[in-house]
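Supplementary Methods S3. Complex input for the iron/sulfur cluster-bound model.
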Amino acid sequence: MAGLADNDTVTTIGEGGKRVWLYPKWIRGKMLTARTAVHWLLIVLLLIGPWIDIGGHPATRIDIPGRRIYFWGATLMATDGAYLLFLFGFVVFGVFFVTALFGRAWCGWSCPQTVFLESLIRPVERLIEGEPSKRRKLDAAPWKGSKFVKKGLKYAFYLVVAGGVGTTFTAYFLGRDGVIEAQLNPLSHPGGTATFVIITGLLLFDFAYFREQTCLVVCPYGRFQSVLLDRDSLAVLYDEGRGEPRGKAKDPNAGDCVDCKACVQVCPTGIDIRKGVQMECIQCMACIDACDSIMVKLQRDPGLIRLDSERHISASLAGKGKTDAPAAADSTASSAGAPAANTNWLSRAFRPRVVIYGLGLIAVFSILVFVLGNRQPVGLDLHRRSGVAPYVQMGDGSVQNSLELRIQNRSGEPRQFTVELVDEDGTNLLVPGGQLTVEAETTRQFPLFLIRPSELGGGDVELRVHDEQGFTDSVSIEFLAGSRPADDPRTGGEA
Ligand code: SF4
Ligand code: SF4
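Predicted complex, serialized as structure tokens:
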């Protein structure tokens, strides 16, 4: 494989550190079709979430004042932090697992930056300004006539997309009515307006100027992916054993690579994948389509650039007797003709890191399913009232404890709860108002009073809370029996 020195510089940094602008070519192919389909599915899911309702709520919304999150039919409330933690763990282990197995699938296929840039921004740019040679000419041309029109049209489109995404992103927090209100009257929601302006501005900067630099310079994932990958992870790779030495198609001593550079011309990050695995590769697979189309034209087998593991490619190289890497035991490559795809899935799947990530993923997912499956529609918490004496000795000799019952109704309908004592041991329960009504997806606190003859002393008291929808649960608290009179200043004298 090529030495590190060949990859030492970033292709988009030119003489004196100047930015080298890329004009990637667009080429049809199986990978492009599949990737575009995935990208558009994600674009639609990302953009419609806050604008459509599921079960009377936005499909996706992070309602900070209401302290709840709506996610495609599920409602998580402020006290559901544990679920969010497991969800986060699931996403993290999921990314680790998929990366160890399939390489940077996230970057090329699901990252919002790639999704919008490759499947919306670049196609429209191509439509307005034409293919790379025309775009290059247009950029070099002086500012007049058609350049103004084309550039104006292009930037107007960028602004619409950036504004649309900025609006939707803000709607994730403010809700659709809130974001519309904020846009009609920016001062009514300063936070929302600021979010909209910042997101729109950043996206516009990214679409119009920064582009692949986000992946190369800013994105942290590109940096730490190397620790998630190993020689058995799938990556977009050039089969050097088959392709080298490069030469003309008619040269019988040349390999399959005709050095047409089609793979380089389509690369959105401007790299030459023939130099080996590079941090800049976002695994978009455009070079696979490009090279396959050349191979088909030359009536050779596709797959000179393909999704494969480094170990398998190296094994193919070793088979050709020009290895710079150890041959692998799992080699199934042929040294001539068509590449043998790395089909040894079993050995690839049972690598230590894949097993560890996979077990972590299964564990977090199982816990998440278990806790969500056992999630009660109602949450109860019985505690002493703050700012009030924990117990008070009444004039008739009985002792009163002032409590507070917090009821969280996680269901989508209002509920009426009844509270009663579990044991008839002489304790009296006083519930101001009798029945306790809690609106849908709301938490409310209710004062309760326990009164006992002082001779009964302290001990645990259990309360049963139930409603007509069949919910029943119990909570308990220790009854505090004291001897302070009601007018004792230390008790606050509350009766
Ligand atoms: S090398 Fe190929 S897969 Fe990697 S970013 Fe460039 S075109 Fe995409
Ligand atoms: S597209 Fe294929 S044949 Fe052309 S330079 Fe790239 S690897 Fe070689």
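DSSP finds 15 helices and 16 strands in the chain. The first strand starts at residue 53 and ends at 54.
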